[in-house]
Amino acid sequence: MPPSAPETFKAEEADNLEDIEKQFAVKAVQQMATYWGILEKVPGSSLRLTKIDDEIYDHLMRDFPEFDPAVTINEDEMKSKVGKERWRKFMMAYNNRVDDYSFGTIVRSNPKWEYGNEETIFVPRMQFYAIEIARNRHGLNNWIHEKYQKEQENLSLEAAAKE
């Protein structure tokens, strides 16, 4: 378990040191690239992101019955005062149960899109897990694997044609 902050530490008063921000950004981009690489190799519908995917999915559907994994996420709504409170309550259920549950990561706004500057939202990892587990359950990420497989097949055909 990671060490906790000193009792006198107040996050809301802490300086955002540029080097720390860069380290968080690098880690988030690494996680994003790793996840995309996995989706290229394995259909999302057969992927498990945690040991408790079923529980996370059921909890998401119970706490956010309006959530539709197929539509574009409304970032303003998600990050509104009410949205933040709902998500914070959801995420706190996984404190000490899911590693790095509150660590920042990047999620695509819509499952039909690739990662890009305009197509992504910076979120806590638990939010990423909940959203991506739902998308995978509904087969919404399978297109990534299918596209990659076709690209690999085309590369093989091109290489064979050159021989």
From TrEMBL:
Any single Gene Ontology cellular-component annotation: cytoplasm
Cited Pfam families: PBDC1
Primary location: cytoplasm
Name of the featured protein: Protein PBDC1 homolog
Family: Belongs to the PBDC1 family.
Keywords assigned by UniProt, alphabetized: Cytoplasm
Domain of life: Eukaryota
Domain Polysaccharide biosynthesis residue range list: 20-145
Presence of keyword Cytoplasm: yes
Keyword Protein biosynthesis attached: no
Species the sequence originates in: Blumeria hordei (Barley powdery mildew)
Cited InterPro entries: PBDC1-like_dom_sf (IPR023139), PBDC1_metazoa/fungi (IPR008476), Polysacc_synth_dom (IPR021148)
Gene3D superfamilies (alphabetical): yst0336 like domain
Location relative to the cell: Cytoplasm
Signal peptide: none
